[in-house]
């Protein structure tokens, strides 16, 4: 169905109260975005920073009287924010399949020598290449972000045939599926978001890899490890993998250092991304302090990828 969008431009100190006000006035959803091309990187724990110039968009059902909403909003602003005049505008959004709208700009992309990522239903430019058909759905991951691109390029360059892989924080499953298509024997795709696991399973089916890739939440994986389940498709009696790849954020990567290292066999590779360049040394230190050695790192824009090897 169509929606009505009310758009406000404000500052970070007034964004939260205005967001609350739109919800009180009946907005079905409120979104805050950057209004001045100001990046926000990984925030400190317990903080929720906003952009100094913030754009607020409230979605309203078409049955809502927007004249009443506008009058009440102006009254609130005059009463509570008298020294901060705020203008707003209203747009009508026609009915669309919103999760598909952005896909019109998602084109086939090449990573490394062999690997292509192609949107579902599109033709891939090189029929004899390794072609991954992808529909991210509600989960993150298309290859367009520098961190994902570096991971895909690394996978393309690595001899994966016959190896066991863990994609920790799989999102859309793009790295797990790329690993499977590049010859991995078995892949575990791990994520704590049920929508991500659903998207990964759907994309596995699209790429005929449902018998190669298994999806688990971290809790499900840990339960299997605790039970030493013989059905868990990892390489040894210790259930260690040849390659573990994790494209998340620096903070979680540091917190998970012991867990990710323990999931990797002696001599196995640990590939980490989602790390800003200035966070690189802290992440490296978290892993080298527990028995890993740095193999290499690479940078793309303000992001980096770290390759480590677990020592015996």
CATH class of the largest domain: Alpha Beta
Mean pLDDT: 84
* Rg (CA only): 23 Å
Return the domain count: 2
What would you call the structural class?
A: alpha/beta
DSSP strand tally: 14
pLDDT < 50 stretches: 38-44
Strand arrangement across the biggest beta sheet: 10-9-8-11-12-14-13
- Summed up, the helix count is 10
Architecture of the largest domain in CATH? 3-Layer(aba) Sandwich
CATH H-tier superfamily of the largest domain: Vaccinia Virus protein VP39
Envelope shape: elongated
Q: What is the H/E order?
A: EHEEHEHEEEHEHEHEHEHHEHEE
Could you describe the 3D structure shown?
The protein contains ten helices and 14 strands. Strands 10-9-8-11-12-14-13 form a seven-stranded mixed sheet, with helices on both faces. A four-stranded antiparallel sheet has the order 2-3-1-4, covered by helices on one side. A three-stranded mixed sheet has the order 5-6-7. It folds into two domains: 3-95, Alpha-Beta Plaits; 101-310, 3-Layer(aba) Sandwich (Rossmann fold). By secondary structure, the chain is of the alpha/beta class.
């Amino acid at each position: 169905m169509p929606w009505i969008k009310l758009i406000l431009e404000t500052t970070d100190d007034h964004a939260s109260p205005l967001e609350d006000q739109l919800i009180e006035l009946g907005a079905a959803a409120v979104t805050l975005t950057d209004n001045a091309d100001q990046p926000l990187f990984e925030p400190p724990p317990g903080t929720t920073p906003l952009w100094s110039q913030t754009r607020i968009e409230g979605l309203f059902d078409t049955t809502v009287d927007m004249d009443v909403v506008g009058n009440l909003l102006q009254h609130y602003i005059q009463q509570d924010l008298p020294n901060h005049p705020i203008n707003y505008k209203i747009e009508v959004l026609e009915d669309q399949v919103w999760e598909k709208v952005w896909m019109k700009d998602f084109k086939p992309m090449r990573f490394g020598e062999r690997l292509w990522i192609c949107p579902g239903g599109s033709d891939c430019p090189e029929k004899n290449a390794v072609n991954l058909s992808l529909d991210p759905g509600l989960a993150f991951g298309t290859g367009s972000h520098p961190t994902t691109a570096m991971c895909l390029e690394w996978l393309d360059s690595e001899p994966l045939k016959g190896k066991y892989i863990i994609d920790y924080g799989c999102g859309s499953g793009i790295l797990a599926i790329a690993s499977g298509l590049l010859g991995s024997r078995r892949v575990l795709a791990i994520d704590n978001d049920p929508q991500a696991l659903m998207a990964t399973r759907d994309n596995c089916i699209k790429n005929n890899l449902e018998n190669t890739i298994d999806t688990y939440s971290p809790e499900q994986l840990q339960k299997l490890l605790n039970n030493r389940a013989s059905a868990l498709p990892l390489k040894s009696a210790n259930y260690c993998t040849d390659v573990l790849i994790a494209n998340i954020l620096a903070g979680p990567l540091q917190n998970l250092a012991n867990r990710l290292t323990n999931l990797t066999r002696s001599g196995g590779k640990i590939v980490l991304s989602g790390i800003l360049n200035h966070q690189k040394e802290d992440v490296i230190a978290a892993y080298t302090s527990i028995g890993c050695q740095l193999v290499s790192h690479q940078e793309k824009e303000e992001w980096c990828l770290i390759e480590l090897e677990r020592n015996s």
